[in-house]
Amino acid sequence: MAACKHLEGSPPAVPRLLQSDVEGPKVDYISALPDCVLSCILSMISMKDMMKTSILSKRWCNLWHLRRNLKFDAHNMLGNGRIMSSHDERNEFVKRVNQFLKNYKGTKIDSFMVDFELNYEPSSTIDEWIRFAIARGVGRIELLTPSYYKFPFGLSFEGKDPTLKHMHLRRCIICDPGTWFGRFWRMETKENCHPATNIDLFTFTNLRSLKIEGSTVDVNLLTTLLSNCLLLEELSLISSSINSSSLKIESSSLCHLKIEELFCSKKKIEEDLDDHHYHRHLKFISLDCPKLTYFYFDNTISGSLSMNAPILKTIEYIVSSHAEKIHDAFALFAKLPKLETLNLYINKNTFEVTPLQGIQTLENLRQFNLSIDATYEDFDIWWILPILQASPFLQKLSVTQRGSLYIETLEAGRLAQQAYLNKP
Fold it and tell me: Is the pLDDT of residue 225 over 80?
């Protein structure tokens, strides 16, 4: 193995002698390992135990700051794995994170994760954590349970190139300051819907992947973020709400997109959020992503989906069992000339036996995986015949009912060709 470079510019350690009454002097080879090896070892233990290594010797006194992957969760900071926490535990968690960051002497961080229920901890505290990580060139940030923390997208650091490549935000508020009043939205209308132009997003221009989960999202900021992140390849919007009934995703670099349980949310300016909060389906989603190759969509919209994705190869699509919805889905698939793999999930308990009609030709489809949440009595395997007739180059077919494999064949090409030739 080639020798690795020493972190922080420290010289190689000289093996020290250990006293032994039985076998004579011994050499401490572990302490003599290069800093990069010791850093790797330290990354495998909890941060609480890692800090205890500082009492081993002078050599180990400051080694813990070589750790570049910082993970703050209940196990690492409190020694337990509980998801929910008491008020005292939350205060202790914040205290220990602050103490760790205050004493941390490292100049470079690869990843920074906070996975703990903070229950509306003042945002200024978490702001300082994010500033700390970004100032040290962090490459990945994961904020998983900060209890609707308003993420500071306006952070900027003069003279520093953007290093942040991957970000995962869960239960955060992602908005332009002008659209958020305390804990309430200003709903976007045609008159006031415009890109957020007063936020400096330079810190995030190097993003490659962005995952937003269980959060509240301002469409203005999301649009501006996408227009500034010209290297973004992966975007996931999961179990989140936006302050608009329509969504447009436009990106010249996006390759992978996942939209799951995305809703329009309206919060009235009232005292009680629980009594005045409701969700509704989006009316319209438009995608303009010329490099998109993978798309997951659960079809939680009441209107239509428009797509410009000329090289899309794989799509995972969840749809209700209504014949009209299924027909609309296949009309969309037929407009994707490079589509090779289709994973279709029909998620209703009752399956409409209405035959499919007028399915347009899927010119490039090679693999079709159908999963149906219906009983054997509700589903007739011949229902897929029009799909086979529309797929002359199909090579693999699988049908699953409620988790049980109904049919799988690698001879789908022969079946499809027969169906295609025999179609009326």
Answer: yes
